[in-house]
Amino acid sequence: MIQTSKKQLRNTMNYIIKLLLFIYQSRKSWWYTSTCRTKARFIRTFLGSFWLGLSNLLSIAVLAGVYGTVFKVANFKDYSIYLGLGLVVWNYISSSVLGSAAIFEINSMNIKNSNINPIFYVVEEWAFQLQTFAQSFSLVLLVLSFIKFSLISNFIIYSLPGLINLLIFLFWFPLLVCMAGARFQDIYQLVPIIMQLLFLLTPILYKKENLSSLAWVADYNIFYILLSTIRDSMIFGGGIMLKKNIFVLLFNLTGMLLTLTVYKKIRKKIPFYI
Are 52 and 135 in contact (CB under 8 A)? Predict the structure, then answer.
């Protein structure tokens, strides 16, 4: 019994290593296809990918004006930075999760008629979302740095561990959603509703302290933890939030291990689900 369990664990770990190796070896392919998607998105527009950052800046300006008035914030500049950084990171998280549910369905013809590992399309979507985020985040950070110049230096010095954790999370969690979406069609309808509720429950438009007796809810919200490790280190500086980043890293490693284990079990069934 023990030997059988050890053998299964060894086989699973070998499979995960081979899967990660495949992702690395095919990096030029999925990065190229995702880049083509990014370029094609704004191929006939005058401003091109500038629209990515501009749409975020317009949203930040409107929401900061409205909610800054509603909440009667004392320092409008600080609130704009708080909301702006939180919103652009949330948009990245939200678009990554929302775009993942139908990945296998969208690529069903390729999956059924080729021997390419389906995880290729998940990684391609991950790269596409990363490129979108990089362009919009860069412009938002540049504009907000005129209000608080230390944002750029704080990001480089303190926020990179939080960003790496976010990138890892947005690989395995969308994969999990993608597998669930392939098996259960209702996931397509359920995910947008859940993400909208999480947006309202996550301190983005407001601060955690505004929840008063319900502030503890944010401490168990993984999306808030991911977001705050980046935003707070950029705003306040002074450290890389070591405890939070270690917790998220362990959470990511556990989540990735479990997700890839599930993927191993359903890999051959995916063409029949879609």
Answer: yes
Query: Whose structure tokens read 């502030």?
Result: 215
The domain limits of the chain are: 61-273
**Which of 91, 85, 86, 83 is CA-nearest to residue 67?**
83
In tens digits, what is the pLDDT along the chain, a chain of 274 residues?
Answer: 555 667 777 888 888 889 999 999 999 999 999 998 888 877 777 766 677 778 888 888 888 888 888 878 888 888 889 999 999 999 999 999 998 888 888 888 888 888 889 999 999 999 999 999 998 898 899 999 988 888 888 888 888 999 999 999 999 999 999 999 888 888 888 999 999 999 988 999 888 888 777 788 888 889 999 999 999 889 887 666 788 889 999 999 999 999 999 998 988 888 888 7
Cα angle, residue 194 at apex, residues 232 and 273 outer, rounded to 5°: 120
| Residues 246, 239: Cα–Cα separation, whole Å | 13
In order, the DSSP letters of 173-184 are HHHHHHHHHHH-
Measured distance between the N- and C-terminal CA atoms of the chain, rounded to whole angstroms? 36
Contacts of 57 (CB under 8 A, 6+ apart): 139, 140, 143
DSSP 73: -
- Distance (Å, whole) CA 270 – CA 274: 7
230-266 in b/e form (b: 16+ CB < 10 A) is bbbbbbebeebbeebbeebeebbeebbeebbeebeee
> At 67, which helix (H) or strand (E)?
helix 50-70
